[in-house]
Design brief:
- This protein is of the alpha+beta class and about 150 residues long.
- The chain has a single domain, classed as Alpha-Beta Plaits (2-Layer Sandwich), CATH 3.30.70.
- The chain has helices spanning about 5-15, 80-95, and strands spanning about 25-30, 40-55, 60-75, 105-120, 125-140, 140-145.
- Strands 1, 2, 3, 4, 5 and 6 form a six-stranded mixed beta sheet that branches.
- Strand 2 and strand 3 form a beta hairpin.
- The protein starts with a helix and ends with a strand.
Length: about 150
Amino acid sequence: MAHVRQQIRNAVVSAITGLTTTGSRVYRHRLYPLANANLPGLVVYTDEESTEYLTMGSNRTIQHTLSLKIEAYVKAVQDYDNILDQINVEISDALSADVTLGNLAKDTQITAFSAAGEADGEQPAYIGVFQVQVAYMTKEDDQETAV
């Protein structure tokens, strides 16, 4: 089995795969820019995580707040903001359908969105970044099972 954080990341990827605008073009983290054939596309990765111990003694219960990023990549000369807004609607709908991500999480929320453009190449690229917070709990001695 994998760490609950990895299971959550996989659940988010599954939830947003098959959206109308981005289809199956969903990737886990990336080292290189997405090729034109992969656009519009989404990239999912873990940003950071904070923890809070809720109990004392041995085998403590830990509340985790996981920060994930979903980056939406679009190439367009015009209407890129409308495309990013449509992707936003689709991601919001997909994640709100099951905020527990199959009982891995206590809650999932999109907490921020930002967009930026890049004018390199023959067609401008635009990136929308969704900040997603996922609250989940584990036991100290079992990081592979959500509680």
